[in-house]
Amino acid sequence: MDALKAEIALKRKTVQNDAEVRPSKYMRRGELERMKEEEERRAREKKEKERVAEQAAEREVALARSRQKKQADTSSRSTSNTPLPESQDPDSIILEGAFNIPNNEAIRRLRAKGQPIRLFGESDRDRRLRLRALELIEERGHEKAGTNDFRKALEDVESVERELRAKNDKGKKKDDGDVSNSAGSVAMVDLELLKTDPDKLYPVIYYALKRTLKEWEEAMDERPENVKRTHQGKLAAATQVQSAEYLKPLFKTLRSRNLPPDMLVRIAEIVYYMQKRQYQRANDSYLRLSIGNAPWPIGVTMVGIHERSAREKISTDQVAHVLNDEVSRKYIQSLKRLLTFSQTKYPPEDVSQLMG
């Protein structure tokens, strides 16, 4: 029994010694967090060192280039009687100095624009100049696309009004003169001509819209001065000037008799109901012209690879035209403004014919 107890005590002591020597397979959360923070700190230090080294290399490259330029300027002044080589052209030096970026930055910007990083036979300098030209083109395009037509019309409304008054005094173009001379005798739109002779509708629609636009312009001029000078008065004048500008493509298309048949039908209906003072029906024709009445997504003309039985349900008169292009959207919107003005100037006898 004593021998057995001694053996058990020896085993217990051996197990305790092994536990003290062997590290535990479990670690505290605090130790894990400290290890993680240490690794992150080392990674940050490594990135910072790499960034500092890269900046130092870029500075060295820039200094070397500036020294080369100074040497080139010195040599060009000493040999002023000899023509400069292409690489030392003064305009090129100025442009390159204004856009002096490292090669890796030029490559990154070109890739972001989807452009090749180097053309055949292109030097690093030519690549920087090409990148600068692309960026200038984009800047000018954004400035042009970002112009607000309404704001421009609002800013120029006074000068435009003065020009319009001067034109009215001296006499406008021939078509405007015809509209003013026949202001009280504009022909009525005959919807039957859509089936028999659509070409005869073009001049009738043209002069009817011209007359309404001219009456809108005269209504703006006849307002009292205290109304014109208010903010709302300037907005109304700017809207009229903007609408007249937007309607020019439509008038040009009407003169050339080049409207699509479905658009001609809808515009003829709008003018016809506007002359009849049935503005609710005119607004319905406007909605069919602008957003359509098809139960399908706007603009759909094919329903699949193969012809279906429902194919004939989609016709061109059910397709919206307001989203075709920006020009169409603007003059269709201006047609609605003419409807609103006409309803104000010539209210219908039946109140139910008012637009909402």
Describe the structure.
Residues 80-98, 142-147, 172-183, 294-298 and 310-317 have low confidence and may be disordered. The longest helix is centred in the N-terminal third of the chain and has 50 residues, at 29-78. By secondary structure, the chain is mainly alpha-helical. The N and C termini lie far apart (110 Å). α10 (201-221) packs across α14 (261-275). It has helices at 2-21, 29-78, 90-98, 103-112, 124-145, 149-155, 157-170, 174-181, 193-196, 201-221, 225-228, 231-246, 248-255, 261-275, 279-290, 326-345.
SSE string: HHHHHHHHHHHHHHHH
Summarize model confidence as the mean pLDDT: 75
What's the tally of helices?
Answer: 16
Q: Give the fraction of residues assigned to helices.
A: 55-70%
Please compute the radius of gyration using only Cα atoms: 39 Å
Report the end-to-end length measured between terminal Cα atoms.
110 Å
Which parts are unreliable, with pLDDT below 50 for 5 consecutive residues or more?
80-98, 142-147, 172-183, 294-298, 310-317
Total strands: the figure is: 0
Report the principal-axis shape: elongated
Percentage of β-strand residues = under 5%
Structural class: mainly alpha
